[in-house]
Amino acid sequence: MWLAPILPTLTALWLCRIPGFDLLDYHACLALAPVMGLCAAHGIGSRTSPWTWALLVLGPLAILLGNAWWVPNCAPMTGLAFYGLGPLLSVVVGLCIGRIASALAPTRMSRTIWLIAVLSMVPAAVHFLRHPQVFAYHGLVGWIGGALYEDALAPHATYVWFRLVDTSTWVAAAVWATHGPSEKPTSVRRTLVAATRMARGRFALLWLICGLLVGQLAGAAGGWRVDQADIERELATAIELRLDGGDAPNVVIHLRSGKKQPWQLHLIAEDVAVRWLELRAFFGTAPGKSIDVYLYPDVAAKRRLMGAARVEMAKPWLRQVHMVWPGWGRTITRHELAHVFAGVDAPPPFAVPLRGGFWPDALVIEGLAVAAEWPMRSGLDPHHWSAAMRRLRLAPPMSDLMAPTGFFRQSSARAYTLAGSLLRWLRDTHGAGALAKVTRDGDLAAATGVPLPDLLASWAQYVDALPLRAVDLQRARARFERTGLFYRPCSLEIGRCRERARAAWRANDPQRALQQWKVLRQRVASHAKGRPLGLDIELAYAFALAEAGQGSEAISALSAQLSGPGRLTELQRARINRLIGDVQNKPSSSLRRWRSAAQAPLSDGELRLLLVKQQLAQSPGPGRKLVTDALLATASKVSYGKALAQTRRQLPNDPIVTYLYARRRRLGPAGTRAALDLAAALPALTTWPLLYRETLRMLAERASRAAMCEGVWVLAEAAGSQRPEVGAWRSELTERCAQMRRLHIKPWLTVVEPRTEAED
C-alpha cells in the first residue's frame, strides 16, 4: 500500500493546524498512534526499504519537532517519552497485526487487519461501558487519559508496565502465527496447528499464553484495569437514600468513611438528597433505578480508581456520578447528577443527547447540566454572564458552538455558560417537554417548532435586555478573556509543573517546587521572545519564591509585573497587589497593598478575605498572629483550624474572629452554638456591610437546614433582598428549605457500614 508510509507524516501536518495537537505532547501522540500502527500493519513487509521505515517512524516526529519553531513546546523530553510509548510501540504492534493477518488470510489481508484491530478493542470498550473507569490502554492507541479537560497528563509507570506486557504478547502472537510450514496451508486452523508443531512455534505459543495470563492478572495489580467491585471495596461505606417513599433506594452514596463522624455522613446524605429532589422537580421525572454516587477521599484516589483527577464526571448509562465531595451546598453536585437525570430521555447506548443520532452533542449535554445546576457567581446567573459576554464581544456565535468540535474550541467558562443559558431559556419558554425532546433528538428546532435562527435570535434578544452593572462587566472580562485549554501555550506542562510543585510542598521541600517553576518559566521565556509570559506562571513563580523563603525576590518579581510593558487588567493588578501584601507581611505595607486590591471588582469572597486581613492586621497581637499564621496566601504550613480556635479563646468577643469561627463550625455539631454567637455579634458587624450580609446568609443557611423557611425570608430582607447576591442566596436557600421539610416527614436514610473480619 503506497499511502501507508506517508500517511502518518500527512497526519502530523494536519495536526499542526489544530491547537493543542500541534506540538509533540500527549494529544498529538494519541492521535498519531493508531494511524502509524495501522499503516505499519498494511504497508510494511519484510522487503520494505529502510527509507520507508524511516519515513513512517521519523516523518511525523520531524514535523512536530519542526513545528516547535512556531508553537511553544516547554517539555520536549516528555513529548519524546509519549512518542516512544505511543506511536513507536504502536508501530511494533501494528507490524505484529500485519504479520498475523498475512499468515492467517494472505488473500484478505487488509480486511483481516481491520478485523483483528476492532476485535482487540472490544475488551477495553466493554470494560468502559460496564465499569466506572474512563481511562483505557490499547496496543494500537497507547494510553487514553479519560477526561478531556485534564491538564497534567504525564508518562507514568503504569503506562510503561502495560506497554511491556502488551507489546511482548503481540510479538509472541506474531511469532506463533508466522512460524508454520513453508507451503501455504488451506485454512487458519491448519496454519496455527502447523505452527504449534514447530519448536519455535511451541515456544511462541507458550510465550503468548504467558503474556495473556500476565496481562489478565496484572491488569488489576498494574492499575490499567479497575472494576466497579474494586472501587466499592475501597469506598466501603454505603449511604442509601429513599426519597420517593418506596422500599428501594433512589440514591446510593459510596464513600470511605475513615475518620468521618456520623454527623458528617448525614450532612453529605442531606446535600445529595436535596439535589435529587431539586432535579426531579426541574426535569419532571427521575431515573427509574437508583443512582450510584461515588465520593472519593481525594484527587489522587479518584485518578487511580477511575481516571478523572480534577474533573468531576458522570456515566449516565450506568447511572453513576464520580467526584470528590465539594462541600455542603455546592452546585457542582447538582450538575453531575443532572447528567444522569437527563439520561432518562436520552437515546442509548450512552444515554446522552446525540447530534443526528450519532455524534454526542456537547452543547446539549453540558447545557442541560448547567441549566439544571444554575450556578450563581457574585450574584449573577448564566443568563447575566452570557449577557455580559455578548456585550463585551467575547461570546462566540452559537453556530460555532454547535459545530461538531466547536464546543471544545472555546474555554469551558464561555462554552458551558452560553449553552446553559440557552437550554435554561428554552425550558422556561417552551416547557420541560421541549427540553425532553431536545435530550432525545438533539434538535432544538424540532423540539420547539421554531426555526433555529429565529430561536437563537429570541434567546439573544432576551439575554441582551438583562441589566448589568459596570462591575459585572469588569468581572466578566476577567473571567471570559482566558483562552481554552488547547489554546494556552504549554498548558499541559504548566499542569504537570503545578502537580510536581504541590507534591514537593506536601513533602516539605519548597526548594524543589521553586526549581520546577523556575525551569518552566525559563522555557516559556525562551519561546516568548520578549513577550509577557502569562500572569499564571508569574504568580506561581512568585508564590514559590515566597514559600522557599525568598520573599524579597518574590516581591521584586511581582513588582516587575506591575511596572512591565505587558497590559494588565484592573483585576490582574489587584491580584498582584494582594499577593505582594501577603508576601510582605508588614502591617503598614501590607495594608496599603490590600486596600489597593480591594478597590478592584474582585468577587465578594475575595473582597471579604481582604477585609478580614485588613481588620485583623490592625487588631491586638492574637488577631495579627492569625493573619500571619493562617490567612496569608503563603501561610500554608499552619493548621487554620488550630490557629483559629486559639485566637477565638484569646479574643472571644472580637466580631470578626467570631465570624470566622462560625463560618468554619456552622455545619458541624457546634454549629448551633456558633450561630448563636454569630447572631450576638451582628450589631458589631454592621460596620462592614460585606461581612454583615454574609453573616445573615450563614444564619439563613442554618435556618434552611432546620426547615425554618420563614427565617430565610426575614434574614434576606434584613440583608437587602434587592441586591443580586442576596436574591440569589435567598432563592437557593428557600428551595433547599422546602426540600428539607419533605425530608423531615419520614425516615429516608440508611448507613451501611463495611463488615469487619470478625463479623465475616
Task: Note down, in words, how this protein is organized.
- It is a single chain.
- A hairpin with a 3-residue loop joins strand 8 and strand 9.
- Helix 30 packs antiparallel against helix 31.
- The radius of gyration is 29 Å and the shape is globular.
- Helices cover 63% and strands 5% of the residues.
- A six-stranded mixed beta sheet has the order 6-7-5-4-3-10, with helices on one face. The chain has a two-stranded antiparallel sheet with strand order 1-2. The chain has a two-stranded antiparallel ribbon with strand order 8-9.
- The chain folds into five domains: 7-226, no CATH class; 237-344, 3-Layer(aba) Sandwich (Glutaredoxin), CATH 3.40.30.160; 351-481; 486-562; 652-760.
- By secondary structure, the protein is mostly helical.
Amount of helix: 55-70%
Largest sheet, in brief, is: 6 strands, mixed
- State the domain count: 5
Strand order of the largest sheet: 6-7-5-4-3-10
Tell me what portion of residues adopts beta-strand conformation: under 5%
Query: What is the arithmetic mean of pLDDT?
Result: 86
Distance between the termini: 62 Å
Tally of helical runs:
34
* Low-confidence region ranges: none
| Assembly state | single chain
The geometry reads as globular
Based on secondary structure, the structural category is: mainly alpha
